[in-house]
Amino acid sequence: MNKIVNSAKEAVAGIFDGATVMISGFGEAGSPVELIHALVDQGAKDLTVVSNNAGSGHVGLAALIENRQVKKILCSFPRTAISVVFPELYRAGEIELELVPQGTLAERIRAGGAGVPAFYTPATVNTPLAEGKEIREFNGRQYVMEEAIQADFALVKCAAADKYGNLIYNKTARNFGPVMCIAAKTTIVQAKQVVELGTIDPEHVVTPGIFVHRVVEISNPADESKLVAENVKYHGIRQ
């Protein structure tokens, strides 16, 4: 029952070439930077990544992409004002993109965790994102069928965890974490704090430990916004 591991390196052990990996984060909020960089060091390649965006600057997810470990990404915001890595590789044909509206992305992941194979949404009707997909009409309105997403691994950041893997999050940093935890075969979590059993009120648990497999405590996680800002200044990226 004890899910605690000793290091980020140990936490990402076993992520294999060709795996599908979900990575939490809304911009830098909730991004498991240390786990991502441990995965960079670990070297698994040909990954399919599911994330809200495609990284900023040259840190976190951007570093994983820059190291040519990602063959495809499913995301809502592949480019931001300070994205440099993904746009260059995409234009060069070195990485695939599946663009998914943000609400649809969240629901596809949630459906994967709930065992729902597909659902209908009006979000992309009459757009290029609906091409090749089943379209049905309900009550006089058209809907596009979207398939659920499941993953081999999820990398998630939380505010606190206990040794059983019960998790709580910090405000916006919660974002995609809870749904990714339930949609992955193996959920790997970096927690800012590992607390004693009973410290977290059961009524406040967001992700129950049954969905979590490994937890590593990283008490002083990198401030990705500062790291990105430093990269912006160093590389002369226009904000």
Automatic annotation (TrEMBL):
Q: Which UniProt keywords apply?
A: Transferase
Keyword Manganese carried by entry: no
Pfam families hit by this protein: CoA_trans (PF01144)
Q: Which GO terms describe its molecular function?
A: CoA-transferase activity
| Keyword Transferase appears in the UniProt entry | yes
Name-wise, this protein is 3-oxoadipate CoA-transferase
The protein's organism comes out as Draconibacterium sediminis
